[in-house]
Amino acid sequence: MAKRGYPRDDTRIVDGFSRHRMRAARERHGVSQRTLAEALGLHPDAVRDWENGTLPMRAQSLRLVCFVLGVAEDCLTDPPIGQGAGV
Q: Please, what's the b/e burial string for 30-63 (b: 16 or more CB within 10 A of its CB; e: otherwise)?
């Protein structure tokens, strides 16, 4: 069972999610962790934990974060979605 205030989607965990890219995108857009969490309807701990690497990013959550920040999904993955290692 998901912790209260954390994402509850049952979709796959995103391989290659880059917590560093997420933080950089959030800061580049001038959005605080609290503001992003509020826009997503989540507790601020969820955003903090994504950025600290203690909460895995799920595909549905990644899409929502990207929508709120106005970036493409491949901006928050390493390597970008659709590109395998060594491509």
A: ebebeebbeebebbebbbebbbeeebebbeebbe
